[in-house]
Design brief:
Elements (H helix, E strand, L loop, with lengths): L14 H10 L6 H24 L28 H5 L21
Length: 108
């Protein structure tokens, strides 16, 4: 397989890189699939490089073209349970907290 990088921006996506990534991901690929993916991944890297060229310091990064507005109601504190009320139905507690079994081999 070839070590020739693909892409107009010198992207280092080679067939060896694709083979290595497929091996790490435990994906079995045929040589034809590796060649095809090399070209496709090279095109993706080129597209990202093109966007990076356009980005300038005076343009703020954005995740949405339209500003998002919080649609949730305001958080207004209300009547809540006391500690005793919350623990009343618990199978086990220490007076201020629920007791639960240790997990993941943790010691108490």
């Amino acid at each position: 397989m070839s070590e020739t990088p693909l892409g107009a921006y010198g992207a280092a996506i080679t067939t060896d890189v694709v083979s290595h990534l497929a091996n790490l991901a435990r994906i079995a690929l045929t040589p034809d699939e590796i060649v095809k993916l090399t070209g496709e991944l090279g095109a993706i890297v080129d597209a990202v490089a093109k966007v990076s060229e356009v980005a300038t310091p005076d343009v703020p990064p954005t995740s949405h073209p339209i500003p998002l507005v919080n649609v949730f109601r305001p958080d207004i504190p209300g009547v809540t349970l006391t500690t005793a009320e919350a623990l009343a139905g618990a199978p086990e507690h220490d007076g201020s907290r629920f007791k639960v079994s240790a997990i993941l081999g943790e010691e108490q």
